Amino acid sequence: MSAGPIALAITGASGAQYGLRLLECLLDAGREVYLMISQAGRVVLSMETDLEPPAHPQAAEAWFRARHAQAPGRLHLFGPRQWNAPVASGSNPPQAMVVCPCTTGTLGALAAGLSSDLIERAGDVMLKERRPLILVVRETPLSEIHLENMLRLARMGALILPANPGFYFRPRSVDDLVDFMVARVLDHLGIAHRLVPRWGGGPELD
Ligand SMILES: Cc1cc2nc3c(=O)[nH]c(=O)nc-3n(C[C@H](O)[C@H](O)[C@H](O)COP(=O)(O)O)c2cc1C
Questions:
Q1: Residue 73: which pLDDT band, with cuts at 50, 70 and 90?
Q2: Which ligand 1 atom sits closest to the C-alpha of 119?
Q3: CA-proximal residue: ligand 1, atom 26 (nearest)
Q4: For residue 40, how far is its CA from the centre of ligand 1 (angstroms)?
């Protein structure tokens, strides 16, 4: 896979840590990131972590850049109505988009093609342009609507990668569980990592 920008949307499902850790790993891998955080995503982030990024997109971008020691150019944060963002158009799509974590609300909006905010529009662009779209859905239990929406999106080419960590590698901490999920996302993005040992003891990616 070529090393184009990765769009990362953090929505308001439980598991903000997954999105934050993925962001960290993408930046560590030297990837350009287009970050979007839904309004509910910000609420959940502040409930599940000690972080309080500012609401305004420009201030939030500066805040995340400072947190990850990123110079301008690598990390861009776009607000929900920022229709001039590259992710809003099929003429300039990112290499891949990940919604992590993904709510059933955003899942439903994507399945219905609503495009009512930038996250939904960016996902819609990925689907119409047949680009990789990874949805780290988190909810339990799942209703028929959720299941049908997942099937619908899977049939359209999206990858449904539920936030569903395995325990066979004997996690010792919440961080281990988070890394398990992030590792699976990075695998699908074709980005090398050493987050968790590989099953079967095969060679690590370099
Ligand atoms: C603490 C908290 C946890 C939540 N967890 C989930 C969840 O795991 N899955 C889900 O689909 N919605 C969850 N929600 C509800 C969504 O945040 C809500 O439906 C919101 O409208 C989704 O908007 P978004 O898709 O634009 O982020 C949670 C809300 C809160 C406040």
A1: confident
A2: 26
A3: 38
A4: 6
Q: From 2.60.15.10, 3.40.50.1950, 3.30.470.10, 3.30.1280.10, which CATH number describes the 6-193 domain?
A: 3.40.50.1950
Whether this prediction's pTM lies above 0.90 is answered by yes
Of 146, 151, 157, 148, nearest in space to 124 by CA: 157
Structure confidence by residue, pLDDT tens digits, 17-40? 999 999 999 999 999 999 999 999
3-state secondary structure of 185: helix
152-158, Cβ contacts within 8 angstroms, sequence gap of 24 or more: 152/111, 153/107, 153/110, 153/111, 153/127, 156/127, 157/127, 157/130, 157/133, 158/110, 158/126, 158/127, 158/133, 158/134
**Residue to substitute in 14, 49, 103 for testing ligand 1 pocket (most ligand atoms within 8 angstroms of CB):** 103
pLDDT at 204 (0 to 100)? 55
Q: pLDDT per residue over 177-193, tens digit each?
A: 999 999 999 999 999 99
